[in-house]
Amino acid sequence: MIGKRKSDPFDRIYMNNIYFCSGSLINNAILDNKAYLLTADHCIYTTSQANNSVFVFNYESPSCNGPDGYVSQTVSGSTLRAHLPIKI
Predict the structure, then answer these.
(1) What are the helix (H) ranges across 6-73?
(2) Considering the entire predicted model, what is its pTM?
């Protein structure tokens, strides 16, 4: 992300070693420091996808379509907590 402030938690999500979405790290209503990642529903909508995702935190790229920046802060796997399918 270009122009993203350092204080903004930004996440890049990979599945099967392919970048496919982004998200933001958020806190919950009781402020107990449990980390939740908010992303679009089309990014992760099955338990299998959640389990097989790798999340790269504090991601920044020096330019659009440029090389990756710092990518050593990662977490692998997650638990899908909510999913709201869109009906058209």
Answers:
(1) 47-51
(2) 0.69
- Give CB contacts under 8 A, 24+ apart, made by 29-37: 36/81, 37/11, 37/78
pLDDT classification of 5: cutoffs 50, 70, 90: very low
pLDDT digits (tens, 9 = 90+) for 8-53: 555 777 777 777 788 888 888 888 888 788 888 888 888 998 898 8
Under 8 Å between Cβ of 37 and 49: no
Buried b (16+ CB within 10 A) or exposed e, 37-73: bebeeebbeeeebbeebbbbbbbbeeeeeeeeeeeee
Q: Using an 8 Å Cβ cutoff, are 76 and 54 in contact?
A: yes
**Which CATH number covers residue 52?**
2.40.10.10
Domain count, the chain: 1
Say if CB 34 and CB 26 are below 8 A apart. Answer: no
